[in-house]
Amino acid sequence: MYQKTLIAGWGDMDFNSHMRNTAYLDKSADVRMMYFADCGFPMAEFMRLRIGPVVMKDEIEYFREFHLLDEVTVTLSLAGLSEDGRRFKIRNEFFSKGKLAARVTSLAGWLDLNARKLITPPDKLLAAMRQTIHAEDFAVLPDSSQTS
């Protein structure tokens, strides 16, 4: 299971003294980009290829709070992937002291930065996606041609 341990920082807090909802989205994106970099796709490679991940939908579920300077362990798994690889559902789970605190599930795709449309990712990136640990509820997503 891919995971990173982060900190709930000052800028992550809201008026109620716990981690704000958009901080979960920010930390999810950070862990995803760390994962892609570890798979051989750092930001420079995405820029060279002129492609990038684009989120179409986020869903956040909350179970426990994080407070200032708490350690935040964030995992990454694949909850869905289309056969052509253009669309994927990625899941980040947030743990506090080993207990599930929140879950972010995002529906995303690979965007051609020039044409501004979804594309099939390069073979190496698609292979990395397919090798990602699958969530318990993993599902094959419809190809983008079937959703247009």
The CATH superfamily name is: Hotdog Thioesterase
Low-confidence stretches: none
Helix content: 10-25%
> Quick one: overall form?
globular
Task: Work out the strand percent.
Answer: 35-45%
Q: Summarize the main sheet.
A: 7 strands, mixed
| Total separate domains | 1
Strand tally is 7
Salient structural properties:
Thiol Ester Dehydrase, Chain A, 148 residues, Acyl-CoA thioester hydrolase, seven-stranded mixed beta sheet, hydrolase activity, single chain, HotDog_dom_sf, hydrolase, 3 helices, alpha+beta, 43% strand
Description:
It comes from Undibacterium pigrum. This protein has a single domain (2-146), classed as Thiol Ester Dehydrase, Chain A, CATH 3.10.129.10. A hairpin with a 4-residue loop joins β5 and β6 (117-118). Strands 1, 2, 3, 4, 5, 6 and 7 form a seven-stranded mixed sheet that branches. It has three helices and seven strands. The protein is of the alpha+beta class and 148 residues long.
How are the SSEs ordered, and which strands pair?
Elements: E1 2-7, H1 21-38, H2 43-49, E2 51-62, E3 71-82, E4 87-96, E5 99-112, E6 117-118, H3 123-131, E7 134-141
